[in-house]
Structures are given as structure tokens and as C-alpha cells.
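>> Question from a student workshop board

For tomorrow's exercise we were told to take the sequence and the ligand below, predict the bound structure, and bring the output to class. My setup keeps failing. Could a helper post the expected result so I can at least see what it should look like? The ligand is iron/sulfur cluster.
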Amino acid sequence: MKHWHLITYDVRDPKRLRKAAKTLEGYGTRIQYSVFRIRLDANTLERLHWELGQILADEDDLLVIPLCPTCAGKVPLHSTGDQSDWTDRPQSFKIV
Amino acid sequence: MSNRPRSEPNSSITMPQASSAVEPPEDEPLVRVMALHALSYCERLFYLEEVEEIRVADAPVYAGRRLHDDLLPDDEQASERRSWELSSTRWGIFGKVDAARRRDGPWVVYEHKRGRCRRGPNKEPRAWPSDQLQAVAYAVLLEEELGQPVPEARVRYHRDNVTARVAVDEAAREELRQAIQRARELRAQTTRPPVHENERVCTGCSLKVVCLPEEERLEERPHSPTFFPANREGQTLHVVSPKAQVSRSGETLVVRQDDSQRQTVPIRLVDSVVVHGHAQVTTQAIHLCAHHGIGVHWLTAGGRFKASTMNSFGRVQQRLRQYEALSDETTCINLARQLVHAKVESQLRYILRGTRGNESARSAVQTDIERIREAMRKLDSAQSPDTLLGLEGLAAKSYFAGLPQLLSASVPSELHFSGRTKRPPRDRFNCLLGFGYGLLQSAVTRAILAVGLEPSLGFYHRPRSAAHPLVLDLMELFRVPLWDMPLVGSLNRGQWQIEDDFELRPGHVWLSDTGRKKALTLFEQRLEESAKHPHTGQALTYARMLELEVRLLEKEWTGCPGHFAKFRLR
Ligand code: SF4
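>> Workshop helper replied:
Here is what the output should look like for this input. Compare the format with yours to find the bug.
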């Protein structure tokens, strides 16, 4: 089962910061400076954790906030801008 | 065993003799200790991973790696080594020891596991057999490296935060010896070992999606759990716009159309990239896709399949078995007969279903139905590919003769058709038909590459340039359900614009940009629809069913035949 997750971090070193951001970009979208929105399942989360574990140091912080579908559905209610896609299941294809 | 008192340092312990190891022949490759762990879990798992080189790193594996990175608490008194790579030609194994520590006494090997331990009769923590084997293997490696006895190993179970002790005694060594021996035997054999008899073992197995153990248990236990995911994981990225360029930026693919528009797609969300027409893909982007096992497929603007990247190293055993099986004429003709039967039956069922309750249509297709039925009857006794081809052709002719009757009266005459014209398509209907089959071809190619079979070796279609025979074979199963049906449905719903969606040229018809996008959406949405697969009784999306059929085909020659091409329209 895939769920939305908010992932935010506090990284003390610019090099690690860049690496962590780059890794997260591979999984989802950056919605604010160091906040990512990622939809993933338990397996992928484990993998992401592992990858970030290789990058981050002890002094860095990582916060992962899993959102259940109900909570994710309420995001548009409390936010500004177009946040309609929090409720949708992303499409299985994209045409550009 | 785990309650065994801690071994005292004892200088009189003698080093095990070299003869106690199973000395391998000169050039026999060493066995990974992790592979012994797999072996003790399930012989089939060992075979899939070590011999067929199929590996799926999933959650438990990653979690395992994370634990390995968790450091043991530092302790001034103790000497400690972590991540110690060791190998022994005497034992014929190699591996990386999580950690080894010494405090006053002899060295002790530590192995970390994420899960729970096993419990003994008095609830005392014990190591699982596969963990125990692994720990003992590390202990003997360390022993040889240090030239000192390592009488004990410990397995740390993080879920319940306990440590199980494992004695490295003669019994344990003997067990290790036998496991190594068994590993070598399995490495030399060419057939996959049978599935594990305990289905609960499979639940925790990282390769269950590839192994499909439920298929083989189905006969004995019709209600065993299914592990095949019903839905595809990632997103298919279709690049249609002719000016688009796909490049790489970090861990994302960037698609630029002219100068203004730019989209980034996180690489982990993509399951394949399909390039239609003349869009460009940079080498860097291709490398990134290859690294993540994502195929890139090129189609012409008209939907004809051109090329694919494939990234399937290894898989030699798998291919050898395919070559061997499909070199046998009887196997081929039997598979081909099942295939053609499935195809023709789906054509028949669709015509019957589409004219149900409409008497004039039904009477107009009656002779076609009879002809298809007749072809189907003759199929069973067909003994050569040519006879099959002939019968398939007869059925197809009647099917396409009857198909116009399935179009509703509201469909404008420009979208009607009279007979199949392939290259080039001469009318709009044929243009749509051909374009959709091209999409189907790329979807089937993706599925075959994902499973790891060789697309160039089929059992029915003859090798010819520009198309992979195995892909053409498998496409036959899905033409009706994946394209003919949604296409006719969309025509009946009036979704097509005779002007805007097509480009008419002298002698042939193309899809316009909007038409192409419409067709793609129609096809992709169809892939997302579910149907019940007769074999597992599970509802699967068609996208998944493509892959399942490839796996079932492979099972025809890996000891579990009789499940291929059983899907039927209802
Ligand atoms: S799924 Fe079951 S039978 Fe297949 S490899 Fe895993 S444990 Fe063995």
C-alpha cells in the first residue's frame, strides 16, 4: 500500500545536504525548501531510509511523517494554493 | 544450545585441522556466506539468487543493511572490528562479518538481524537455523584469518532486542560443511529446486514475486495465498511531442518541450519510458534508466516498435532452459496450439458478446461465427505451425469481417472499416488498430524483458527482422482484450473526431498529435482495468496480467506446465 509521506530534514553540512536533496528528488517532489512530498510503500521507504542513512551523519536530523489517506485528504482544506492532488492516486502513466 | 555457558578462554583449544573443511577444487568459485543463509531458508531461493542471478532487494534486505550500519556501542575495554571481509579457499566460502569483538577472552562473531529470534523450550532466545549457519560460517572464516579458535558466535535480534548465542562446535561445523556441499551441488544442476513445502516461509521471502510459489501449490492446495501484486508499481512515461528532449538531472528525468516547458519526473516513480517518434533521449538519461532497471523503448510516430534497451545481465540458466525447451518441436507446436486457441476463442467470444441481443447484427455475423468455430475445431488436430497459421488466418478473416457489426449506428461512416490494411493503414479504423497493436507490442516487450526471457526466441512466429518472435507470440493473447475491445468501445462512445484526430495523406492515414494522445490514454487506461485471472482467481490489472502470462509461459518448461494461455474473456 502506498501512502503520502512528508519528509523533512536538517542537515548540517552543505555537501550532505545536496546529496540528501538529490536522493529525495529521485523519489518525489520538493514542496518547500527542505520538505518533500513522497508517495511510497513500506518497502520503498526502507530503501529510502537506507540510502539516506548512507548520506546523513549523526548530527543531522530526519523527520518522516506518514499521512493516512484521510489526513492527506484534509491537506487541501488547510493549505493555500492548488493542493487538489493530495487525494488522487497518481496516474499510472504520463504523456508529454 | 543457546544456554550453553560462555566459553572460557582456553589455551588448550586446538585449531580445527584443515582437513575438517571441504576443500573445493581449484577453480570452483567460492560460495557467499549470505548465499548459505538463503540456502538454509529455501533451496529454491538459493538457486534463483545464486545460479539464476535474480535478486530483488526488498524491505527486509534493506533493513538488514541498515542494521549493519548501526554501530555497536563503543567500549574502551573491548577490541572490535566491523565489516570485515574474509574468505577461505579451504572452506570455499567468503563473506563480510558484521562485527567481531574480543573482551578478555576469545573473539566472538556478531551478526545482526532485524526480526525476532526463535524461542527454546524455556523461552530462551535462539537463532534461526539459517542465521545460525551464517554465524558459524563467519566464525570459521574469522578463525582462519586470526589463527585462533572462535568458539562462539552471537546473533543479535533487533526486533525483540535479544542476543542468541551459537556454539561453533563440531556439530555446527559439520552442518556448515554439508551446506557448502549442497550449495555446490545446486550450483551444478540446471533445474530449479521445487518450492518450499511451507507456504509461510514464502510469505517472508524476497523473491516470492519472481518465484510464484502459489502457482505450483495450486494443484494441491487451491487456497494458498497469492503473492503476485495486482497492480503495477511505477508510471509509464510516454514522450510523444516530437520536439521533446529527455535528459537527466540528478535522480530525475527532465522532459523539455520547446524552450518554455520543462517537467521533472523522479526516477523512482518511472517503470518505463516509451519514446514515440523523434523525441531525443540523452545518453545520461539512458544510463540513469539502465541503472534503475527501467527500459527505454522507441516506437515510430505511427506506433511501430523499433528498439528497446535491455539490461539483463546474467540470467544464463533461464535463457538456456528457454533455448532448450523451445528447440523442441513438440513443445513448440503444443504451446502454439494453446496460444492460437486462446486467441481465436477470444475473437469468437467478443463477436458473440458484441452482437448479443441485437438480432440483425447477429444474423449478419452468423456465417463468420460458424467459420471461426470451424477453425477452432480444426485447431486441436493441427500438427504443424503452417496449419496453425492457416487456421488462425481463416479465423482472423472472419473476425474482421464480423467486427464492423459491433460498431453502433452512431459511428460516422469515416470511422467504419472494411477489411484489415496494415502497412500503410488506408482508413482511420486501420490506423487506430495498427497504432494500438504497436503499443501492445511495446507493453509485451516490457513484460518479457522484466521477466528475463529472450524475446528473439519464440515458439510460433518465425524469426524475422524488426520484431521479436516471442513478443509477437504473446501479443496474440491480448489483441482482443487489450485493444480491439477498448477501441470499439471508444468508437461507440463517440470519442474520436474524424478531422482533428487524424491526418489524411494520399494512400494512408496517420493519427494527429491529439489522436495519438487519445489512443495512448485509452490503452493505458485499459492496462489499469482489472480482470480475474482464471489461474489464481485473483483480479489483476491487465498490466500485471501481461507479466503473469510471461511467467506462466516460463513455467511450462520449469516443471509446472499447463497454466499458460488460460485467460479468457467472460
Ligand atoms: S517464494 Fe518460497 S519457494 Fe520461492 S524461493 Fe521464496 S521461499 Fe522458496
